[in-house]
Design goal:
Rossmann fold, 10 helices, about 220 residues, globular, alpha/beta
């Protein structure tokens, strides 16, 4: 099972909305079954899931202390992806969650405030020594600051080319436990979420291949 952690110190970056949409995208793209873990004390993702009619993705309640064992159990249960939503804070809890990630996503709005507050999030992610990438969220169409933000983020790490724009569909779908993919599968919002998931899934496969090659090299050295 691959674990994707969505984190940002800045509140309002769209972490929960992104988490929900990506997990559903994984299911609809035949990359599931997927499961959620909500580590945010506000439990916004869990609240959304509780009003959801669809049975998947699943929600797995878990305490920080039991997280390693829970992730192992979810993998044995047959889940292929686990999406973890985190609180907008720099805590030891977030640091422990990040260490369990195969990939960390950092949602960032194209605004000076988000860029100014990015340093602390980046420090925490880098200390965890896990792969990460930026996802641009709540972007205004054709706005110069969107391009400027992509350029600024690119100096610190990978930026996925699919941008999540500021659309009413995201808020409208979340009110009744759905995502933009289920509200209107032919909408621009659904298209950009599907495209983003394609980039993420490809990156996960690339990281897995690198890990397999590294492990193979260690085995060769051990038998040399």
């Amino acid at each position: 099972m691959k674990t994707i952690v969505i984190t940002s110190q800045k509140g309002g970056s769209g972490k929960t909305t992104l988490t929900a949409n990506l997990a559903v995208a994984a299911e609809l793209g035949n990359h599931g079954p997927a499961v959620f873990i909500d580590t945010d004390p506000q439990q916004t993702l869990a609240t959304w899931w509780n009003v959801r009619e669809a049975e998947s993705p699943k929600l797995a309640p878990v305490s920080l202390r039991d997280l390693p064992e829970k992730l192992d159990a979810l993998g044995r249960a047959g889940f292929t992806y686990c999406f973890i939503d985190t609180p907008p804070a720099l805590t030891e809890q977030n640091a422990q969650v990040l260490k369990r990630a195969d990939l960390v996503l950092i949602p960032t709005r194209p605004s000076p405030n988000d860029l100014w507050s990015l340093g602390a999030t980046l420090d925490l992610v880098r200390q965890s020594a896990v792969p990460f990438a930026f996802v641009l969220t709540q972007a205004k169409a054709n706005a110069r600051i969107t391009v400027q933000t992509i350029a600024a983020l690119s100096q610190h790490g990978q930026v996925f080319p699919s941008v999540i724009h500021d659309r009413v569909d995201y808020a409208a779908s979340m009110t009744d436990g759905r995502t933009v993919l289920e509200l209107n599968a032919n909408s621009p919002a659904a298209a950009e979420v599907g495209e983003l998931w394609g980039f993420i899934e490809k990156r996960i496969r690339e990281l897995a291949n690198v890990s397999e090659l590294a492990n193979a090299g260690k085995r060769v050295k051990a038998h040399a």
